[in-house]
Amino acid sequence: MTRTTLRFVAPVIPLAFFCATACNKDKPTGATGETKGSAAPLASAAPSPAGSDDPRAVDPGAVCTTGERKVLAKWANRRTGITPVQMGDTLALGVAVGNKPRLVMVDKQGKAEMTSVSVAEGSDLATDIPKNEGKRDLQRVTPFKTADGKMSAYADYRDKYESKRRRIACELAANKQVVLAFDGKPLLDTEKKKEAAKDPPKEATPAPSAGPAVAAAPAPSAGGTPGRLRMLSRPGLSAPPKVDAPVADAPKPEAAKADAAKPQATDEKKKALREIRDCRTFVDNDGDVWGLGSELYGEPQADDSVKWSMRLFVQPNAAGGYYMLDSIALPKEPKELHTWESPSAAERADGSVALTARYRGTLVSFLLNKDHKPTGKVKSYRGGWPGMVEFTPDGSNLLLLTSYKVTGDNHELRIGRLGEGLPANLDKPSIEGVDASLSEPSLAISGGKRWLLVHAGKRREARLVVMPVDESLKATGKSYDVATGGGVADSRLFPLDGGKVLAVYIQASKDGGDELVSQVLTCGVKS
Question: What value does the mean pLDDT take over residues 97-102?
């Protein structure tokens, strides 16, 4: 594969903005009747016990003993999952109940309280989509502290309507300040093409290669309302002036009669087509906010055809412009549009950022400097279908943890250690005495000891277990079942004071719906 030098391009063609100081009034959400104001504790779906309510008998030989177990919410959204952001001595977790963003605030002793998130009046996020009109996927909720010290969250979501309208948005819930967004009809109706094609030929996956840097303007949908690509405007800053979006369906210039009197039509014909297909928001340790976007990009050709590609880019800050990360050439008439999935990022000790994502079954990784400019080469890791990556600080470096689906429902753990650059390979740690299939690892270093939380067994039917491990993630003692019965969709492990750890997970309940649960554990190494 070949890649060109990564470079930064300032937005030299018009952008469509909206006011970053949009209404921020309290209002009932309609669907739930909740009042959206400043964050306030919500009642748990189950009462908080004074001690552990674990029904299992105490095993004197167990690796861990349980402390407070708390059901924080019923009907937790497993697609949204759990997104942690450390804020001083407080750990903030971004979650969702249904499609409503929520925060869980955790202190150093493991006491967890769920709080509401203020959603701006007039925001698309404030109103549920009727089932007969479309569907909303709330992809991620990322905690954020505003300039006035109030807690809020960035919501990354995707709305698909029966009318073919799509809204892709990464925005601050409190006041609609947008990181990235697209609102309009898609450039390509791949769903219609799938229905029309009986036995479409399989397309070979093209090798990734860097393309031209991303320009910062939107593209009109073919035959529809122009989509709008918007950029971040930080809290406290005024939005740039609003400008008109490009005109859809520009007239074609006459062949062999092109004259100087119709330059606008010619220019419209040559304009690149752009559509944000997915986006994610990230918040650095110092509060800097940046976005990651997957964009369908079309270059009109002289024969009226379009050269299509899917591009991954970073939108670093409110100054504008983008850094291209990757570009994949697509067939002339794409039947499927894949995006970069499950992106994960973490800041290193020197302020640089490690970033990973999955594209069609391949884990790709990048290093960004402290200004979020890509440095070095793109690194790919194959060997199975990768899950989402978790980064864990380990001294001055980061540990990269993930799992790969290798056969059927069999998963294997992978680990990589970041030094000055990205790891050359991902290693398989030696884990014995547990199930052969292990997935979705999470690591906490507490009291000088390392504790690994994993799904043991078939991924969605697995037990959730914790075990002591060494620096290479080799098991050094017995495992302990944190949750049994399967149905665990997402899980994280966090260090607490006194050498304790906190497991937070989403698990299907016996009476229906998913529960968000926190469990304090005191663990010791036992062979």
Answer: 96
